[in-house]
Predict the structure.
Amino acid sequence: MNQLVAMPLWRRRGPIVALLFLIVAAVIGYTLFKPPAATYKGPAMHTFAVAVHANDPGDQLPVFSLQEGDSAEILVLSKTPGMLMVHGFDDMPNVTPDHPAKFNLRADKTGRFSLHLHTNDGRQIEVAIIEIRPRN
Ligand SMILES: [Cu+2]
């Protein structure tokens, strides 16, 4: 008599069952212990937009937050003509009521900086705060 026929079904299928068990164990193990999804932590490019308006001391200004190494392009609209400035950064674009400005910034230093408008008639108007945090 054939010995295989005499064996119980689970013994004849032993290698297949073992393989299935290993596959199921691998899937469960991967599901339980898979590493967290990778998150990009490198420099980022940000775009912001703000409208200039005369403000009083104590008024809340918008805060644009960056991390060191990031870049930002800030679209600025103004009814008052003048030159935009952030002390310590190179870009100083002119803005007029007809031509919004794009202020470009590379966050190569950290701290809180004032984006302000030097108006053509000699005033200074605070526009926004740029906050650059150290990269972890
Ligand atoms: Cu200035």
Remarks:
- The domain at 45-133 is CATH 2.60.40.420 (Immunoglobulin-like).
- The beta strands are 45-51, 63-67, 71-77, 82-85, 94-95, 101-106, 111-119, 124-133.
